[in-house]
TrEMBL record:
The chain crosses the membrane at residues 61-81, 93-110, 142-164, 176-201, 221-240, 252-275, 307-327, 377-397, 433-451. This is STAS domain-containing protein. Residues 715-733 have a biased composition (Basic and acidic residues). The lineage of its organism: Eukaryota, Fungi, Fungi incertae sedis, Chytridiomycota, Chytridiomycota incertae sedis. Keywords: Membrane, Transmembrane, Transmembrane helix. It comes from Geranomyces variabilis.
Length: 768
């Protein structure tokens, strides 16, 4: 065991008087005001990261950015046309959206790899929202989509400017993976009718309905199917074939694979032109006439903005989640740290300003960002070169877009979206790591498939919040024992070290709270600590006659149940203990011996190393807990705290000041109504219990232990010389000033336990 000659660690120098809340706030406000000028300059500078890296721009970066920008430009044009079709909008709006994304992003970006523009998931969501809100004819679909972009941009800009990007952290990665995979499956199913040329299928229905209707109408497939499946076959051939050639060292194959969308569009557009250019009506569905250049600048009208408010919330959540996921992924892969708040500013500026040019909601693209990263991009300036390609397409290539087969665009969507679907290995990984994460993934995927992306987002986000609150309200705690070989205090339920851990001295309980002590979990901690006290210590309080008990008093039943549970645990622990010679036949005797060795509780030591927050409800819990354990033990039980963070010292000193008084930290009932119902003493008044225990029970004292003393109800004043002068009769809080709490705060658990042993004969046995 611990060497008794080892001196106690030097205790922290706690102040005699803690600053008031007012003085703390005043000091913080003064500090903020002194630095407000530099903070404002830093904030404005952070809004435009381009001013940081542009002065360092060089020729090497320029050539790399040109290559990456032009490469992405070859991909963004066919995808923009396809995703506009997915959003049920004319194809030119996809080009408008992609242009504003790549043009504006470079001025606000903190990621060199990300490309903002039309994406499959947000386009699919936009199409679903248009179908549900604008199908009745009340709203124009194009204006409704523009209003969605405007509102989404406003909300994103507000969140980014106020630096509230922390809200994104409340959505776990499994939820993002789930709804992305579900959206991918939904999009692929919705494009089957386009691949086959089947008309009359409402692709905005639930996925299982779309799949069923497509299969029922397979007989209506047209010539479009030949173009659709041939385009898909070429895309997959280029994708996997070029990847295999690249792995074998053929560098040219990588660029061919990256350009596969453009190559397939050029090939099948040429075939379509050869078939249809002399016909009055095309033999299969084609894009049709595309207006040249940009449309007129316009402001979203108020009627469409009001109608788009509910739908914009879903677009806001999806676009933020998708964009931040892309940004963080490529930042992690390429060794830099993007700023999530500034990325929301960039995304909001893109959607807000783009809406005046006629864009629908945009966000970061997984596929184009991957291509940009693989192309060796060096700075966000590469987006400008992509913008040049899009402008060229709008003013020069629009006549050629007329003959692009719609089935080819469907094939491009299917090929691009297939990379967003999570692999089966992720399911196995989530199963191995955390079942709740797997449930979140399945919920997001399932609701996306059977209902819609909008419903899936709400359900999965609600589930994530519930899980988060549950983990906060039902945290872990541990009863600690000491491993003598290392001097560490570990949970007695630890699978390995718990078997060799030595419990603390008789009458001492060491508890570690593994979460902040706040209102969601205060009652949970209190009830479980009291259960531990009942199961591991002897009852020393007053046994009241039946006519004096409260109708709800179930202390006797709790004691019996706790004893039985504790005896079972002792038997199991005895069998598991390393080197134990306990046999099955001797287990009842082991349990009987363990029960007979219970001692009255003298002190509880709290390990606060994992506590990051304490509120008034937590302080009230400590106060109530101390009153209850005093009554149970029939004597004053000291509370000691180890590893307390400095910012919590003032709060805990307040607790030590008001403990064992009738003051509530957060009174709900006015103090004048605190009248006892059965006697002049409260039913759970620890002072009364102590006095009666002193009169009726003195034989249970440990050797060397001081007897219960009812002369004071305030242990801090007793030890610190404060007396009871600071107690008030009006129920107002007692100011914790000029109080010495050195005896109750300790640097280590060992120090706290040794202090509880002062003056007791058991100290020599425990420290031997």
């Amino acid at each position: 065991m611990a060497d008794a000659s080892v001196p106690l660690s030097e205790p922290p120098r706690y102040p005699e008087e803690y600053p008031t809340q007012y003085s703390v706030l005043k000091q913080k406000a003064a500090h903020r005001l002194r630095g407000s000028g530099s903070a404002a300059r830093h904030y404005l500078h952070s809004l435009f990261p381009i001013v940081t890296w542009l002065p360092k721009y060089n020729r090497t970066w320029f050539f790399s950015d040109v290559i990456a920008g032009l490469t992405v430009g070859m991909v963004v044009i066919p995808q923009a046309l396809a995703y506009a079709k997915l959003a049920t909008l004319p194809v030119q709006y996809g080009l408008y959206t992609s242009f504003t994304g790549v043009l504006l992003y470079c001025f606000f970006a903190t990621s060199k790899d990300v490309t903002i523009g039309a994406t499959a998931v947000v386009s699919q969501l936009t199409g679903q929202l248009i179908a549900s809100h604008a199908s009745s004819g009340e709203f124009d679909p194009v204006m409704f989509a523009i209003a969605l972009a405007f509102l989404t941009g406003v909300f994103q800009l507000i969140i980014g400017l106020l630096r509230l990007g922390i809200v994104v952290d409340f959505i776990p990665a499994p939820v993002i993976a789930g709804f992305t995979s579900g959206a991918g499956i939904t999009i692929i199913i919705g494009q089957l009718a386009g691949l086959l040329g089947i008309a009359g299928i409402n692709t905005n229905d639930n996925s299982y309905l779309v799949l069923g209707n497509t299969l029922k109408n397979l007989g209506d497939a047209k010539l479009d199917a030949a173009f659709g499946f041939a385009s898909l076959a070429f895309l997959l051939f280029f994708k996997f074939g070029c990847r295999a050639l690249t792995d074998r060292g053929h560098r040219w194959a990588r660029w061919v694979g990256i350009s596969r969308n453009a190559l397939v569009v050029i090939l099948f557009t040429a075939i379509s032109y050869g078939v249809n250019h002399n016909l009055a009506k095309a033999r299969f569905k084609i894009v049709g006439d595309v207006p040249k250049g940009f449309g007129p600048l316009q402001v979203p009208d108020a009627r469409h903005i009001r109608g788009a408010v509910p739908a914009s919330i879903t677009v806001l959540i999806v676009s933020i989640l998708e964009h931040v996921a892309v940004v963080k992924s490529y930042g992690r892969l390429n060794g830099y740290r993007p700023d999530a708040n500034q990325e929301l500013v960039a995304l909001g500026a893109t959607n807000l300003l783009g809406s005046f040019l006629g864009t629908f909601p945009a966000t970061g693209s997984f596929s184009r960002s991957a291509i940009k990263s693989q192309s060796g991009v060096r700075t966000p300036l590469a987006s400008l070169f992509t913008a040049v390609i899009v402008v060229l397409a709008l003013y020069v290539l629009t006549p050629l877009f007329k003959y692009i087969p719609s089935a080819t665009l469907s094939a491009i969507i299917v090929s691009a979206i297939s990379d967003l679907i999570s692999r089966p290995a992720l399911v196995k990984q989530l199963w191995d790591i955390q079942l709740l994460d797997l449930v979140a993934f399945v919920l997001a995927l399932g609701f996306t498939f059977f209902f819609s992306i909008e419903i899936a987002i709400y359900v999965s986000v609600a589930y994530s919040v519930v899980v988060l609150l549950y983990r906060l309200a039902r945290p872990h705690y541990a009863v600690l024992g000491r491993v003598d070989q290392t001097g560490l205090w570990v949970s007695t339920k630890d699978q390995f070290l718990g078997r060799i851990a030595t419990p603390p001295p008789p009458g001492v309980l060491v508890v570690k709270l593994e979460e902040s002590l706040t209102y969601p979990n205060a009652n949970y901690f209190s009830e479980h600590i009291k259960d531990v006290v009942i199961s591991t210590t002897e009852f020393g309080g007053v046994v009241l006659p039946p006519d004096q008990k409260l109708w709800c008093d179930d202390t006797d039943d709790k004691i019996k149940s706790a004893r039985k549970k504790n005896n079972n645990a002792v038997q199991v622990h005895s069998l598991q203990k390393v080197g134990s010679d306990v046999t099955i036949a001797s287990l009842p005797e082991v349990a009987k011996t363990a029960d007979s060795k219970l001692h009255r509780l003298c002190a509880i030591v709290f390990d606060f190393s994992a506590v990051n927050g304490i509120d008034s409800t937590g302080v009230q819990m400590l106060t109530d807990l101390r009153r209850d354990v005093d009554a149970y033990a029939g004597q004053r039980v000291e509370f000691h705290f180890a590893h307390v963070r400095p910012r919590f010292e003032r709060i805990l000193s307040y607790f030590l000041r008001i403990t064992r008084t009738d003051h509530d930290v957060t009174p709900i009932v006015p103090p004048s109504l605190h009248e006892p119902q059965y006697s002049s003493q409260r039913a759970n008044d620890s002072s009364a219990s102590v006095r009666q225990a002193q009169e009726t029970d003195s034989i249970n004292q440990l050797p060397g232990q001081r007897p219960p003393d009812a002369s004071s109800t305030h242990s801090v004043e007793e030890h610190a010389g404060g007396g009871g002068d600071n107690d008030r009769d009006d129920g107002r809080p007692v100011r914790p000033a000029s109080i010495n709490v050195r005896e109750y705060f300790h640097a280590t658990v060992d120090d706290a336990v040794k202090v509880t042993l002062a003056g007791r004969d058991v100290e020599a046995a425990w420290t031997a």
